TrEMBL record:
Ranges for domain HTH tetR-type: 1-35
DNA-binding in keyword set: yes
MF annotations from Gene Ontology: DNA binding
Lineage, opening ranks: Bacteria, Bacillati, Bacillota, Bacilli, Bacillales
Stated name of the protein: TetR family transcriptional regulator
UniProt-listed InterPro entries: Homeodomain-like_sf, HTH_TetR
Source organism per UniProt: Paenibacillus montaniterrae
């Protein structure tokens, strides 16, 4: 299927990749090279006034929508999640991606706490909540579930913000 899509013969593909597993591994590396927390969320030079909007907008950038490239990345990520149930190599890679986002949310929320936008207690739980919500919203959009994902993400963000920092 890949050979046909790129206009090559199957033997030509295997000239460059000795096994199907190597091909899949290279596809994984290529597709997810830019899929990390800091590519979606602004983490430098935040102030209290822009913290909530930065968190909200970063989450929206992660969700599939008008950006077909992001949609494709998330579709492939879902396929690798399924593959990771059987293959330890992909499970480790998926877990590494998950930890990057959990650590990213944690660091961002710690910065928000320093700014006074987020209460400093239970930061790890708040980071996990945001990671789980964005992951499930993205999956719901891919499955064409009719929900107001922007509204749900806004509520998730507001749930971790101090009252005076909430998005109105």
């Amino acid at each position: 299927m890949i050979a046909k899509k790129v206009g090559m013969t199957k033997p030509s593909i295997y000239y460059h990749f000795s096994t199907k597993e190597e091909l899949i591994s290279q596809v994984f590396e290529y597709i997810f090279k830019d899929h990390y927390f800091n590519s979606y969320f602004q983490t430098d030079s935040l102030d209290k006034e822009q913290f909530a909007q930065s968190l909200y907008q970063g989450g929206l950038k992660m969700m599939p929508g008008q950006d077909r490239a992001n949609y494709a990345v998330l579709r492939v990520l879902n396929e690798f999640v399924i593959l990771s149930e059987r293959e330890a190599l992909y499970r480790e890679r998926i877990i590494k991606l998950q930890h990057d986002f959990l650590d990213g949310f944690r660091k961002l929320l710690l910065a928000g706490a320093d700014l006074g936008a987020v209460a400093s207690h239970n930061i790890d739980y708040k980071a996990t909540i945001l990671a789980l919500v964005i992951d499930n919203l993205s999956r719901s959009v891919l499955m064409n579930v009719e929900i107001d994902y922007e509204g749900v993400w806004k509520e998730a963000v507001n749930s971790i913000l101090n009252e005076d920092s909430k998005i109105r």
